[in-house]
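Q: Joint fold for the lines below.
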Amino acid sequence: MKTRRKFGRREFFKTTGGALSFFAMGKHVSSAIADAAEDSPRPIKRDPAQMKRLLDEMDARGYQFWSVPRKDGEFLHLLVKATCAKNVLELGTSHGFSAIWMGLALEETGGRLTTIEIDRERYDLARRHVSDAGVSQRVTLIKGDAHGEVAKLQGPFDFVFLDADKEGQVDYFNKLYPKKLVPGGILVVHNAIRQASSMKDYLEMIRKHPDFDTVTLSVTMDDGFCLSYRHRAS
Ligand SMILES: C[S@@+](CC[C@H](N)C(=O)[O-])C[C@H]1O[C@@H](n2cnc3c(N)ncnc32)[C@H](O)[C@@H]1O
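A: Joint structure:
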């Protein structure tokens, strides 16, 4: 269950230090945007008021569905765009809040999201929300246990958001790296501050992994992300 606690400004700056380097990651931004134009389904016409209502309603029920806070959704949205991600994987869909934020960003990059949820009710709800948001053509939802489903996916992915069972991070990492995460790819883990103890093994491993640059950062000044960049020469 996600709970919210404020932490100090000094801790915030310590954990965010270096995060900006992710935005200077040497991705070939202009060519990716050109590629995206080729891969863009017809632009979706949305009613802004209806979209706002949907996101507001989902955000208001975020506690019930353990979804990321809105600011973290906005951050994922920005990060997908800034890294020009094309092939995104999310583990832990819940009701689809983060999937919608990333799906909307993928309209700009011309990419696709695959997202996996073990719970039937949340999976069904996420399908409906993704459809209501008009991002169905960007998002493939899979109902199943991500530990098994990841092994079946071909990939490779250039952006992975790990937000399912926190104790499973090392297993997910071992199933994704090296073959299913491209060099230059990003691994994003949520709850890396508040639930750090549940994924201690993962955080220790990734922070000293020679093929990754890793930072912890918080957008909400509450919980936060562990962000890892896989070196291109790895
Ligand atoms: C923190 S919530 C995900 C929130 C979602 N990413 C969002 O921000 O809208 C975690 C979700 O992972 C799902 N989950 C837990 N273990 C899983 C597994 N082994 N495979 C797939 N989903 C799992 C839970 O049912 C829950 O809906």
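Q: Anything notable?
A: Confidence is low (pLDDT under 50) at residues 1-38. The beta strands are 87-91, 112-117, 139-143, 157-162, 181-190, 212-217, 225-230.
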